[in-house]
Specification:
heterodimer, A: mainly alpha, 3 helical TM bundles of succinate and fumarate reductases, 8 helices, B: alpha+beta, Ubiquitin-like (UB roll), five-stranded mixed sheet, 10 helices, 36% helix, 12% strand, elongated
Chain lengths: 233, 273
């Protein structure tokens, strides 16, 4: 008779927080925080159409929110800390679930045909990795100015300098489209994970996810392409 | 089977009536001697397959052929062959249970064309180890059920049916979830090899009924802990499971499981170790 691996011997999750569903909830909630941030970020970006002075003033305001009650950039740092925690929680959950999925199917199929998955759902993991790499470049470019030709100047000048370069705009555009696809599946998935979807709502949830993803993608693409085509200079 | 034997005697090559008689197919089948032996895809030809045969009957034809040649027949899981037991399950051309949304035993050869090449593989997931060829060990599902997929009721005389009213909608949804036969197609089709749809169907089925309420929180927490312990992947809500499910269990059940689990964790339920 054949012998079969006895999987009852496998290690049990020690506490509730290590269950896969808990990790998914962490992913969903951190994702929602990041989506809310993206909405605010996109609206802020569109200030570029109001001209250099307004844009730089907005940037300055971000660093002085709550002054003088809060000293200096306290509010901005609080936002940054929340974002950093959200990003690392999102990545921790993703990597840990990715590894779990890899372990769950060490031997793949010779032939596998997908019937339900979308391009967006298929690219969540590697798309996420590319987005993370983009965010680092994005900060080096527009926050710290390290890789920006207008390095030490104001936010508006850095913006124009970066997006006047077609290569830089192309990279940005690819990353933003990836973010859009990530959100398209992510918003639906978060709704499922938090147990808020059902057969009746499923269609609405999916349309909402597509709508939010599209608006954010277009909103983020508007500024760089306006710079590239000289509408903003 | 008689018809099959007659069928194999006839030559269909170059025959104008070949279309009526049957199909010639090339099968690429996963052959693996045992759980610890390395397997590989082996090519076989079957001839004069009737479109009215089920997929498993077609494999029976192949096995008779192999036995006559003195070869080892292909091991595959099957039992009722009526689409209700959940025992059969093959990855056919990369799809769990093949191109139709049904069980492998209810898939008919009319879904294929003469001359087709068909890849046949076992379910792939580390909690479903291959026993031999296409047969896999799915006892992991039994252990998930043992972890909470039950209700505790006193035995004895059956209670009066109307003693515990169930709203029609709940009864319908519970019944839809209860149609899960535990075949494992959800795991096989899932890119993460997750058993979420299976567990969610059980959690939904019992969680919607009054009889399932006393153990509802412990059930969801323990069943999810057990599926993690077995080594299944996590759900990423892609939907391959539901599309492959012969019973069409909906993704809604997964949302319901998540809802119950998060509620249970908030209420302080913790998995038994």
């Amino acid at each position: 008779m054949v012998t079969v691996t006895d999987s009852t011997q496998r290690r049990a999750p020690k506490a509730a927080k290590t269950t896969s569903v808990f990790k998914k909830a962490v992913m969903a909630i951190s994702g929602i925080i990041l989506v809310l941030y993206l909405i605010a970020h996109m609206i802020g970006n569109l200030k570029a159409f109001a001209g250099e002075e307004d844009f730089n003033h907005y940037s300055e305001w971000l660093r002085t929110i709550g002054n003088p009650a809060l000293p200096g950039a306290t509010a901005l740092w609080l936002i940054r800390i929340v974002l950093l925690v959200a990003v690392f929680a999102h990545m921790w959950a993703a990597i840990s679930l990715w590894r779990q999925a890899k372990r769950a199917r060490p031997q793949g199929y010779v032939t596998k045909k997908a019937v339900a998955q979308s391009y967006a759902s298929r690219t969540m993991r590697w798309g996420g990795v590319i987005i993370a790499a983009f965010v680092i470049w994005h900060l080096l470019d527009l926050t710290w100015g390290t890789v920006n030709s207008a390095g030490d100047s104001g936010p508006y000048d850095k913006l124009v300098a970066s997006f006047s370069n077609p290569v830089s705009t192309a990279f940005y555009a690819i990353a933003v489209i990836l973010v859009g696809m990530h959100l398209r599946h992510g918003i639906w998935s978060a709704t499922q994970t938090l147990g808020q979807s059902n057969r009746r709502r499923e269609v609405t949830v999916n349309y909402t996810a597509t709508a939010i993803a599209t608006v954010l993608t277009l909103g983020f693409l508007l500024v760089p392409f306006s710079v590239l085509f000289g509408l903003i200079d | 089977m008689t018809a099959t034997h007659e069928g194999t005697m006839r030559s269909s090559v170059g025959d104008p009536g070949a279309e009526k008689r049957g199909m010639n197919l090339t099968l690429r089948v996963w052959r693996q001697q045992g759980p610890t032996v390395k397997g590989k895809m082996v090519t076989y030809k079957v001839t004069d397959i009737s479109p009215d045969m089920s997929f498993l009957e077609m494999l029976d034809v192949l096995n008779e052929q192999l036995i006559l040649q003195g070869d080892d027949p292909v091991a595959f899981d099957h039992d009722c062959r009526e689409g209700i037991c959940g025992m059969c399950g093959l990855m056919i051309n990369g799809q769990a249970h093949g191109p139709q949304q049904t069980t492998t035993c209810q898939l008919h050869m009319r879904s294929f064309k003469d001359g087709d090449s068909i890849d046949i593989e076992p379910w792939r997931a580390s909690p479903f180890p291959v026993i031999k060829d296409l047969a896999v060990d799915r006892r992991a599902f039994d252990r998930i059920i043992q972890a909470g997929g039950y209700i505790s009721v006193p035995t004895g005389t059956a209670p009066e049916a109307h003693a515990t009213p169930v709203p029609k909608k709940d009864a319908d949804n519970a019944f839809d979830a209860a149609t899960c036969i535990g075949c494992g197609a959800c795991v096989a089709a899932c890119p993460n090899a997750s058993s979420m749809l299976f567990t969610a169907a059980k959690v939904t089925h019992l969680g919607l009924l009054p009889q399932g309420q006393p153990e509802r929180n412990d059930r969801v927490v323990n069943m999810v802990a057990q599926q993690d312990r077995e080594g299944f992947g996590g759900c990423t809500n892609i939907g391959e499971c539901s599309a492959a499910c012969p019973k069409g269990i909906s993704m809604e059940t997964i949302s319901r499981l998540n809802h119950d689990l998060l509620g249970a964790l908030r209420a302080g339920a913790r998995p038994k170790s």
